[in-house]
Design goal:
It contains six helices and ten strands. The protein has about 250 residues and is of the alpha/beta class. It has one domain: Rossmann fold (3-Layer(aba) Sandwich). It has a five-stranded mixed β-barrel, surrounded by four helices. α2 runs parallel beside α5 and α3 crosses α6. The chain is globular, with a radius of gyration of 17 Å. The protein binds adenine. Adenine binds next to β5, β9 and β10.
């Protein structure tokens, strides 16, 4: 079994990298793949880069060149669901592309020639990730200076919507949420890679699970303190969750 752990940003990856035993780096497709062991498993750590195309390239390389047979993603997202607040965590049970629109040839959001709009994550791996998130985060404090985030975060499970833009206005967030609702989808969060990773994993038949810490509400303040949040909150959360996850595999 070889597990891939994907992150979108360097700060998110740094703490994970320190856990890797016998790390060896391999360059491919303009990316650095870190191969090693963690909790007795063969593991490959990689940055997806940002956006759906970059994430798809990274995932295909992982599977084709490194033979990974399980993929887990950790990162941050903007909360758009009711009650999904900054500092909460969302474990995805499925992904959809909020900017996919081949209408009128195909229904809005449907991925042409796949016959569906949303792609489910692997149920078994996702159940482990959900439990790892609940267990790993119990009692994890954070040191983020602008928000009172010292409570244990709420862990949600549901649909995450990916698209090739940083959603940074209440109006845009509202349009994304309402458009999806009109088609029968209730998204909890937006980000920029997950649906692409889910699609490539589905193409190859590789189980995939993903967890995102909510860094913002995808509104006009979405960019404020983004990098501080990633360093001070999302990175320790990712480490706490993944440390627990690899022990449970
Ligand atoms: N990742 C974190 N916050 C996001 C947002 N508001 N839009 C897209 N991706 C994000």
């Amino acid at each position: 079994m070889t597990l891939a752990i994907m992150s979108a940003l360097l700060d998110e990856q740094r703490g994970l990298l320190e856990q890797l035993k016998h790390p060896k780096q391999v360059q491919r497709a303009g990316r650095t793949f870190w191969c090693g062991q963690w909790a007795g498993h063969d593991v490959v750590l990689v940055l997806t880069k940002v956006g759906k195309v970059a994430a798809a390239t990274t995932t295909a390389a992982l599977i084709d060149a490194f033979g990974v047979d399980q993929v887990v993603f950790t990162g941050v997202a903007g909360g758009i669901g009711e009650g999904v607040g900054v500092g909460d965590v969302v474990v995805a049970n499925a992904f959809i592309q909020h900017d996919m629109d081949a209408s009128p040839l195909f229904a809005r959001y449907e991925i042409p020639l796949y016959g569906c709009a949303s792609m489910a994550c692997d149920a078994h791996l996702t159940a482990i990730l959900l439990e790892a998130s609940n267990t790993g985060l119990a009692g994890v404090g954070s040191h983020f200076h602008h928000e009172k985030l010292l409570k244990s975060p709420n862990v949600h499970s549901g649909l995450i919507a990916s698209g090739d833009r940083f959603v940074s206005s209440a109006q845009d967030a509202g349009q994304v949420r309402q458009g999806l609702q009109a088609a029968g989808f209730e998204a909890l969060a937006v980000e920029m890679e997950g649906a692409a990773v889910a699609q490539v994993c589905r193409d190859y038949g590789v189980p995939f699970a993903a967890v995102r810490t909510i860094s913002d509400r995808a509104d006009d303040d979405a960019h404020v303190d983004f990098s501080a949040f990633v360093k001070q909150v999302a990175s320790p959360y990712a480490l706490a969750i993944v440390s627990q996850f690899v022990k449970m595999l």
